[in-house]
Amino acid sequence: MSDPIFPEVVIGPIAYITIGFLLAVIVLLVFRLKTLDQDQDSKVSEDSFDLNMLNLKKSRRDILGAVVEKPVLQSELPSETNFSKSTVSQGIKDLTDLGFIKKKKRGNTYLIEPNLDRIKEKCGTH
């Protein structure tokens, strides 16, 4: 017998199987990413706190609220909270002393992160 005139006839089924497999993988990845987003959304709602229960000054509550949403560089907090640098600096000192936030040195500023365990403890959400 001679070689087939149209080799794509031989390759065709393999190509269709490969394309089907790749499409199935893409669909599964998209589904997994959506479930990860839903898991993340439920985590945010679990970590939602009533910061009013902490009996802090408004400026301290607002700074803590910004940090609870996501860790922030101290140098960015004045623009995010609309407080002066000195108010932010004093607020961070107070919140650190109370154990509500943690500071990590990043260049010439600090990364400010929430201490979620301490916040949950004081807010009464365990």
Structural write-up:
By secondary structure, the protein is mainly α. The chain folds into 2 domains: 1-46; 51-123, Orthogonal Bundle (Arc Repressor Mutant, subunit A). The chain has 5 helices and 3 strands. It has a 3-stranded antiparallel beta sheet. The chain is elongated. The model is unreliable at 41-46 (pLDDT under 50).
Outline the fold blueprint.
Layout: H1 8-46, H2 58-69, E1 72-73, H3 77-81, H4 85-98, E2 101-106, E3 109-114, H5 116-123
Antiparallel strand pairs: 1-3, 2-3
Helix pairs in contact: 2-4
* Number of β-strand runs: 3
Distance between the termini: 77 Å
Return the CATH architecture of the largest domain.
Orthogonal Bundle
Q: What is the makeup of the main sheet?
A: 3 strands, antiparallel
* Shape assignment: elongated
The largest sheet has its strands arranged as 1-3-2
Structural class: mainly alpha
Count of individual helical segments: 5
Number of domains: 2
Strand coverage percent: 5-15%
Low-confidence stretches are 41-46
Q: What is the fold named in CATH at topology level of the largest domain?
A: Arc Repressor Mutant, subunit A
Tell me the Rg in angstroms: 26 Å
Name given to the CATH homologous superfamily of the largest domain:
Winged helix-like DNA-binding domain superfamily/Winged helix DNA-binding domain
H/E series: HHEHHEEH
Offer a few descriptive terms.
126 residues; mainly alpha; Arc Repressor Mutant, subunit A; 2 domains; elongated
